[in-house]
Design goal:
The chain is α/β, with parallel strands linked by helices. 36% of the residues lie in helices and 23% in strands. A nine-stranded mixed β-sheet has the order 2-1-3-4-11-10-9-6-7, with helices on both faces. Strand 10 (194-197) and strand 11 (201-204) form a beta hairpin. Helix 2 packs across helix 9, helix 4 packs across helix 5 (122-130) and helix 7 (212-224) packs antiparallel against helix 8. It is globular, with a radius of gyration of 17 Å.
């Protein structure tokens, strides 16, 4: 991978594709997902061995691919270098018009072999679907809160670590990695945690952008409506403030964009 020791000649044009909006209580404090990922990417830039400003590394734009005007909800691929597809409360296997459009757009980017794709949670699953993989409800129920991932040998090389810890909140999974992708990680509950194709895509099932307060708010909201049962809720709440590697994962995203 290309290092980030010196500022690039031009920032990477990264479009954040918002596939949902945060809970109102989270949105009031941290904004929409575009703003939340902007904070994460800024922290990643500032934590480099030679710290960089966000603006020197990335030129960010944000698109609402759920409720936005279909004619303007997506950037022209010729005007961007990469996209980041966010998480969502929706299921990536559903056939709502906006999900089908997102899958088709992602497939077109990957087939074009120039614009790179970063996927997070729902975005990980959408990318896998665009490559022909099946998405379904996990037989292992919800995977929640800070979770340790075991890395493959390639995962250790890509992430520069032996293990990773990342926030999780999903009950849908990619059943099998798509052909041609490189498996990077697995957990006890989900064997398809991260995938990679050099210079084309990198995706993670977890949420590097989450912090403990976001995790707690989501857990409480889903527990209060009965979506998450008492036992898993209590266990997840106990781990919500555990150390996690969100910024380190975002640094890997930055390196991927410069490969």
């Amino acid at each position: 991978m290309i290092g980030l020791g010196t500022p690039p000649s031009a920032p990477i044009r990264l479009a954040i594709l918002e596939a949902d909006e945060p809970l109102p209580i989270i949105k009031a404090v941290r904004g929409r997902f575009g703003a939340i990922f902007t904070l994460l990417l800024r922290a990643a830039c500032e934590s480099l061995d030679l710290p960089q400003t966000l603006d020197s590394q990335l030129s960010l734009s944000t698109y609402d691919v759920v409720a936005g005007d279909p004619d303007t909800a997506y950037p022209d691929p010729e005007t961007i270098d990469a996209v980041l597809i966010t998480g969502s409360r929706h299921s990536a296997f559903e056939n709502h018009h906006w999900i089908i459009r997102l899958v088709e757009y992602t497939r077109r980017l990957l087939e074009g072999n120039r614009v790179r794709v970063i996927g997070v949670c729902f975005g990980h699953q959408i990318t896998a679907r665009a490559l022909g993989a099946q998405i379904a409800r996990s037989p292992n129920y919800w995977e929640l809160s800070v979770t340790e991932l075991e890395l493959t040998e390639e995962g250790k090389r890509v992430f520069g670590a032996d293990t990773l810890r990342i926030h999780q909140t999903h009950r849908d999974v990619v059943l099998e990695y798509p052909p041609g992708t490189v498996a990077l990680a697995h957990s006890k509950q989900c064997h398809t945690q991260a995938m990679y194709i050099p210079c084309r895509l990198i995706t993670v099932q977890g949420h590097p952008e989450f912090n403990d307060s976001m995790m707690r708010e989501l857990l409480q909201a889903r527990h209060s409506t009965g979506i998450i049962a008492d036992g898993p809720f209590e266990d997840a709440m106990m781990r919500a403030a555990d150390k996690h590697d969100g910024v380190a994962i975002a640094r890997v995203f930055l390196r991927f964009l410069r490969e």
